Structure formats: C-alpha cells, structure tokens
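Feature request, filed as a ticket because there's no other form

It would be nice if the structure record came with a short human-readable summary line next to the tokens. Right now we just get the raw output. Example of a typical job, pasted below so the devs can see what we mean:
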Amino acid sequence: MTFNPRKGHAALRRGRVSQAGSEYFLTLTTTGHRTGLLAPPPTAALAAELGAMSADGTWHVRCSTVMPDHVHLLIRLGERLPLARAVQRLKAETTAALRAAGCEWQRGFFDRRLRPDDERLLILLYIYLNPYRAGLSRAEETWPHFRCGEEDWMWFQHELDRNLPAPEWLM
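Raw output as currently delivered:
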C-alpha cells in the first residue's frame, strides 16, 4: 500500500481555518485509546496547562471533561496561537505526565468550529454526559473530571437535576 498525502490527518486539516474568537469543540485521544488520563499526573498536568492557556489568552475553556482515554473541550480561541498550535502546546506540556501514566497522545485531534447559531447546550450536554453514558459514573454521582467555566455554569446548572444528569438523559 502506498502513502497517499490526500488522506489522513493532513486531509482533514486542508481548508480549515483557525479563527480567533471562534468556539471549537475539541477531542484529544490517547494512542490506541490507551487508558491512563485519569491517573493523578495527567489530570493535574491537564488542569494546570488548561488553566495557564486560559490565563495567557491562548483560549478560554468553556467546559471540559477528562475520560480514561480522551479529553473533550469546548473552547473560545484567543489571539495568541492558531488552533493547531494551541493543541500542540497542550499536548507538549502534558506529554511527560501522560508517559508517566503509560500512555501518549494520538497524532492529530478532532475539531469542530461552532457556528453562531449552533446550540451550545447540546455541546455542553454531550461533554457533561460522556462519562455517565460510558458507564464510568452512576447517575447519583458527580463526575470529578468535568469542569465548566463560571459564566456557563450559571445557566447550565439549571439544566441539571440537583447538579446531576436527569435520569431520562442516561437511557
């Protein structure tokens, strides 16, 4: 089989535009879906770097959840770096912690730029419900690796049932 440069990660990036001020839904995955992101070194490194990137204006994290083998983020891109470079920075700054947990980042990432008329509630619900639907958390428990920015939490918490998922969402 010969290499075709028109396929794969490069093909997915062709024609995409990184636009400061735009919102993106991102998914970063470990190689081979190897679990380990919930170990203390990776979760601490991810929290620290996501916070640093928000503080320096690289992006503003609206919400995130860390799963055993992937991370979901809803971000508003800042002006410091284009999206691919911002994700590259996050991965670079957390690689040592991932390796300590026996995993590494998969090459590339999934991104979807949200349009102004896209319903943010659906994205937040997807990110919030991911650990519940994967069977990692029971409905009466709060997933400890979900984070939501204060501004979004003010309205999003009213969509929940005592800060927990509504039972009908988990069916």
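Something like this underneath would help us a lot:
Strands lie at 23-29, 59-66, 70-77, 110-113, 146-148.
The chain has a mean pLDDT of 90.
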